[in-house]
Write a structure and sequence with these properties.
It contains six helices and eleven strands. With about 280 residues, it is α+β, with helices and mostly antiparallel strands. Helices cover about 25% and strands about 25% of the residues. Bound molecules: iron/sulfur cluster (SF4). The site of iron/sulfur cluster (SF4) has 16 residues, from helix 5 and strand 9.
Length: about 280
């Protein structure tokens, strides 16, 4: 057998070995992905109401770039009562790990009081409606009720732990300002309602001349500020008051040690929130 012939056989065998190696590695990575990056529905403590259901959902967003926006709870209780309960609710969609606390109403109370629970099954489905992706978790009815009762973490606790490594935008959001730049200097007095020199001339217009300016609004201190579930990560609050609000990939959080002495600015941020989830109380 010539040397060339032997070299060809060795090269072919090496190529086959390489292909088998790549295949085995890809299978291994798929298996690891399946085992350790499985989508996970976790039951949390609800602070919503006695019909509240709180949960968090985590999945591999790179492998499955979808937006989950629907939850379904299904009780199957063939040996007891009620035999079946089916609840579906939509919520503000999220394309990153999220947590929600939803009031499921009287139907949910039927699930919680079903009997016998240890022979019943509860299925929880989280769905991305647009993409048609659903992940399901199923457990005994008694396990479901126990998990809900014994949960200690709330949506707020979990949301605070979500990764906050959101890459900052490459552009700066300009600060909002409603104050025009100063007018050029001139010897002429401006004839406007708030100029005392012309007080009275505007009576009847814009609520009565100089008085229309109204009293200065007093600032106040905030006792507590928090974010309720439902943030749509629009960044408005952080643009207005970055010392207090930090918008992450999935929600908005209050920065530790945030200054609470500028109530007017806090109010401005709360009013700018399109879904009104910024809440605060004034210090007495
Ligand atoms: S303004 Fe409201 S919705 Fe927008 S990021 Fe802040 S809390 Fe979330």
């Amino acid at each position: 057998m010539s040397t060339t012939y032997i070299a060809m056989i060795v090269a072919i065998l090496a190529g086959i070995g390489l292909l088998v190696g790549i295949g085995a590695l890809s299978l291994l990575s798929g298996a690891l992905n399946f085992l350790f990056v499985k989508p996970k529905i976790e039951i949390l403590k609800s602070t919503n109401s006695d019909a509240g259901f709180a949960f968090t959902f985590k999945w591999d967003q790179d492998a499955e770039p979808v937006k989950f926006d629907k939850i379904r709870l299904h009780l199957f209780n063939p040996f007891g009562s009620p035999t079946e309960v089916d609840i579906t609710r939509e919520f503000e969609g999220s394309d990153t790990d999220f947590a929600r606390d939803i009031d499921l109403g009287d139907q949910f109370k039927k699930i919680l009081s079903a009997s016998p629970l240890d022979k019943a099954t509860v299925e929880i489905e989280v769905t991305a409606s647009r993409e048609g992706v659903t992940h399901k978790s199923s457990m005994k009815g008694s396990t479901f009720v126990d998990k809900r009762m014994n949960a200690t973490q709330t949506v707020e606790d979990v949301a605070a732990k979500f990764v906050t490594t959101k890459s900052k935008p490459l552009f700066e959001i300009p600060e909002r300002s409603f104050i025009s730049p100063p007018l050029p200097k001139t010897a002429k007095q401006l004839k406007m309602a708030t100029n005392p020199m012309f007080a009275g001339e505007f009576a009847g217009a814009a609520g009565g001349g100089a008085a229309a300016a109204g009293p200065a609004v007093e600032n106040f201190t905030v006792a507590k500020v928090w974010i309720e579930p439902g943030c749509i990560v629009c960044d408005a609050c952080e643009a207005i008051f970055p010392e207090v609000f930090e918008v992450t990939d999935s929600t908005c959080i209050i920065r530790p040690g945030a200054p609470l002495n500028d109530g007017l600015k806090m109010q401005e941020a709360a009013e700018a929130c399109p879904v009104e989830v910024i809440k605060f109380t004034k210090a007495s």
